[in-house]
Amino acid sequence: MAELFYDDDADLSIIQNRKVAVIGYGSQGHAHALSLRDSGVDVRVGLHEGSKSKAKAEEEGLRVVTPAEAAAEADVIMILVPDPIQGRVYEESIAANLKDGDAIFFGHGLNIRYGFVKPPAGVDVCMVAPKGPGHLVRRQYEEGRGVPCIAAVEQDATGNAFALALSYAKGIGGTRAGVIKTTFTEETETDLFGEQAVLCGGTAALVKAGFETLVEAGYQPEIAYFECLHELKLIVDLMYEGGLEKMRWSISETAEWGDYVSGPRIINDGTKAEMKKILGEIQDGSFANNWMKEYESGLPRYNEYKKADQEHLLETTGRKLRKLMSWVDDED
Ligand code: NDP
Ligand code: MG
Ligand code: MG
């Protein structure tokens, strides 16, 4: 059984007695910096020359310095810049400013798991990863709640790294909801697998294939959009509340019968074999290495895929339909 930690298990004074640098002020960075500050923690934000988010951080009353200055001042350094550039930011601004006893923190394990960042032996290496987007992390904190987090220690140089990670998680509201203990390896591999096979990749491909099948058979794109994309939210909400069981309790018996007999024909042994291959490429590092190469060469294939899907009939139909649906909120 996974180990869970709540407010009473975490000592906020540990992080209150440290100096924290939050490097990056995007989705996660703004949530961590503001909530730690509101939890009574000494926080500075590290941002590069010409950063678009600098003005926003300063408007909120945060002190913004360069990533190198932030790392030099602080003894807990949380890296919240995009994953593909963390290696570079670490080399350029952080490595030289790490002292024995410092701690380096991550919101996702990729750079440690695949060795793109290699911290020295004398520092604690921790992860506090909220299981939700940064804007929700901040909103929940302000409302007295929190987003569940996972926490991990890759290197426990001081002997107190996990207590420090829990204290940090408390500072952003995580222990209000619950913190699950994991490892960098488990977090990285399951996160990449989940988003590729199920949450983002699998779901997007399923929706597109279903939509195309109906449209190619002559049905109206608007009807196909409702059936294959719009209604997905209603089904997923039921699963979220009560698992497959609650979803099946709510749908008609006809839908439930179709679910049992047709679902396994769509996601079949071949699909699962492909999932295992995808997991293999995550575990052996080839996915991460290919992604880094793509990023460093200026994202040519990424941009091609993105453009093709933006022009897909599913998306052009959806854009038109959502404007007509007053109850759908398309703003973020
Ligand atoms: P964002 O893309 O939202 O934010 C990136 C931030 O880094 C921006 O403030 C950007 O500044 C800044 N930045 C870019 N380059 C540099 C640099 N060279 N030096 C300093 N700052 C720089 O990132 P996310 O919050 O999405 O991701 C951060 C980490 O959190 C990642 O490890 C990610 O995996 C993890 N994570 C993210 C989640 C999410 O909700 N998005 C959920 C859980 C984990 P500017 O834009 O001003 O140039
Ligand atoms: Mg992810
Ligand atoms: Mg129906």
From TrEMBL:
One of its GO terms (cellular component) is cytosol. PROSITE patterns: KARI_C, KARI_N. GO terms for biological process: isoleucine biosynthetic process; L-valine biosynthetic process. Mg(2+) 2 binds at residues 191, 227, 231. Binds 2 magnesium ions per subunit. The keyword Disulfide bond does not apply. The keyword Hydrolase does not apply. It is an enzyme of class 1 (oxidoreductase). Residues 183-328 form the KARI C-terminal knotted domain. It comes from Streptomyces sulfonofaciens. It catalyses: (2R,3R)-2,3-dihydroxy-3-methylpentanoate + NADP(+) = (S)-2-ethyl-2-hydroxy-3-oxobutanoate + NADPH + H(+); (2R)-2,3-dihydroxy-3-methylbutanoate + NADP(+) = (2S)-2-acetolactate + NADPH + H(+). Its cofactor is Mg(2+). Involved in the biosynthesis of branched-chain amino acids (BCAA). Catalyzes an alkyl-migration followed by a ketol-acid reduction of (S)-2-acetolactate (S2AL) to yield (R)-2,3-dihydroxy-isovalerate. In the isomerase reaction, S2AL is rearranged via a Mg-dependent methyl migration to produce 3-hydroxy-3-methyl-2-ketobutyrate (HMKB). In the reductase reaction, this 2-ketoacid undergoes a metal-dependent reduction by NADPH to yield (R)-2,3-dihydroxy-isovalerate. This is Ketol-acid reductoisomerase (NADP(+)). Keywords: Amino-acid biosynthesis, Branched-chain amino acid biosynthesis, Magnesium, Metal-binding, NADP, Oxidoreductase. NADP(+) binds at residues 25-28, 51, 53, 134. It comes from the Bacteria. Pathway: Amino-acid biosynthesis; L-valine biosynthesis; L-valine from pyruvate: step 2/4; Amino-acid biosynthesis; L-isoleucine biosynthesis; L-isoleucine from 2-oxobutanoate: step 2/4. Belongs to the ketol-acid reductoisomerase family.
